[in-house]
Amino acid sequence: xxxxxxxxxxxxxxxxxxxxxxxxxxxxxxxxxAALGKQVLPAALNAQLADxxxxxVQQAGIxxxxxxxxxxxxxxxxxxxxxxxxxxxxxxxxxxxxxKQYTEINLSSxxxxxxxxxLSQRTMNAGDVTVFTAGDTPELLVRGLPHxxxxxxxxKGHAAPAA
Length: 163
Fold this sequence. Notes:
Layout: E1 4-8, H1 12-15, H2 17-36, H3 43-48, H4 54-80, E2 82-87, E3 90-95, E4 101-106, E5 112-116, H5 119-124, E6 126-132, E7 140-146, H6 148-156
Antiparallel strand pairs: 1-2, 2-3, 3-4, 5-6, 6-7
Helix pairs in contact: 2-4
């Protein structure tokens, strides 16, 4: 049995650090408005909403919080759909939630491993891993993996054995 050297799902926070933070702030604001109603709104906005009842403002806060929570849930499920495992002799990519797709690549057949990182991905130590075997079309593309250079090292055979 070959030893597993790397096993990871894409990271939601590492893939979208700023938008995740914004959605979390929107979620918190929605919960705050739902809990306290008009009391937490700025005076200018409160004056414009003077004809709305306290219950309507609270319902709007609940709706905003629910939409933000739904968005976070969708992003989280999307990260759980992909999984990359690198063992001593093969690379296994699993994709899907209900229907699964498995791709197994023998490490000896890998020709090129390409890592692409945006500035935010570099600061979060994440990246997109593309694996080429034969030809110019990539065999595998996984977005938002943590520690992508570790994957490249393992696949290309330059990593030291795990302790």
